[in-house]
Amino acid sequence: MEERASIRPGLPSMTPTESSWQIPPSPLSDYRTTASLPETTDVLIIGSGITGASLAYNILSKASPPSVVLLEARFACSGATGRNGGHTKHAAYREFLDNMRDLGEDEAARILRFKFNCMRNVHNFAKEQGIDCDSWQGDTVDVFYDRGQLEKAKKATNEIMRVLGRRDPAAKYEFWNAQDAKKKFLVEGSYGALSYEAGSLWPYKFVIGLLELGIKLGLNLQTWTPALKLMNDDAKGAWTVLTGRGVISAKKVVLATNGYTAHLIPALQGVIVPLRGHMTAQRPGSGLPKDGLRTTYSFIYDDGYEYMISRPKGTKFGGDIMIGGGSTKTSDKGIREFGTTDDAAIDSVILDYLSDSAASRFRSCWGKDSPDGRMRNAWTGIMGYSADGFPLVGQIPNQRGLYISASFQGSGMVLCFDSARALINIMDKEDEDELNEWFPKAFRMCSARTAHKFRGRLHTTVSPMELEVKSQL
Questions:
Q1: Nearest 5°: phi and psi at 305?
Q2: Which helix (H) or strand (E) holds 71?
Q3: Looking at residue 133, what DSSP letter applies?
Q4: Where are the beta strands (DSSP E) in 153-303?
Q5: Which H or E run includes 352?
Q6: What is the reported pTM?
Q7: 3-class DSSP assignment, residue 295
Q8: Rounded distance, CA 432 to CA 411, Å?
Q9: b/e per residue, 24-55, with b = 16+ CB within 10 A?
Q10: For an engineered disulfide with 41, which of 69, 83, 213, 435 has Cβ 3.0 to 4.6 Å away?
């Protein structure tokens, strides 16, 4: 894993696979607010995914806001947010026992509540602002194909209910035995299932909606403007950023660059490690409900999982299955997906596995494939993972005016939106005590966190690092 973590991320590919979420492209896709790149700005944000768009909107919503320029290396929302699974799902029980052991009950509870509230806040914001993004809220179900994973889930949810209290909305879980899981969720061959609150949406449309709101408030969006180098001008108290279209200076620079961050901050090489994920859009089998499945899903096994949503009834391709994951199914158990930033390519082994994944879980309930074929589209996207398994939010140590909000562990839809609010609080030096009440201290950027050694994805029964060791025995 050390070798994979040492690979420089470079710039995003200029010819990425086409995500179904990005079809058709928005008019903002290649948008530039001004024909030329401004020479200066108060705040410069690099990255136009949910983090960058949320930051821009929240900054510009303040009274007497500073000027804000947002740079994007490719088209708007071309990175991880526009390539994810469309899931707003926290699944925080999977890390709760580890967090309680390592951080204590209070912080473990704070992390869980943060993810749960962020999930709800995303949907509430879309509704309040009238963003048309197929926002859906309901239940999700985790279906277990490994007995150890199921037992760990039971232990974790018991602890959550004890620490948070059974009346806390974030502590509401319901287990289903194998027979009931088959009847209610149409899945076969499982040991049981766990349902709880979650949601889904069209992530690209949500971010485009955020960017549109930001532009109305004065945001200067510059697409196809890759940031090549950061330079600190102490004398002027500013940062200079070299781009592919010229130079821009800013009093404050925010990196919303997730898996690509070490390209601009070499000191964060191995602190934030890219991981390429695979996604597919599939036509449903004839045996599945014509109006779509009533829950979202995760299929959890010994060393990995898939995540799946069903497109809501009445939407484009309603009933379609959007399923991703499968990274541990390669001969090296997914090790080579770490450090990879090539979202122009698809691993054939993972794609073959995902092609059969949903049908194999529903078995007889799947029915016959569509006459047009099962696979509608497949694509990849680049996530960012940290050594300790938490986002990095705050000022870069010993770098005045340089900030970061990145490394969201593949769970950006329940982390990024409210992490942006927290970062603005940090940048503006607002009420620290109030921030600490709801924002996890474990997410705060500090020097100590850069010293951890990267071991792969955390909070699974068998980690990628352990799998790598086993493969060498």
A1: -165, 160
A2: strand 68-71
A3: S
A4: 174-177, 192-200, 220-222, 227-233, 238-243, 246-255, 272-282, 296-301
A5: helix 348-362
A6: 0.95
A7: coil
A8: 25
A9: ebbebbebbeeeebbeebebbbbbbbbbbbbb
A10: 69
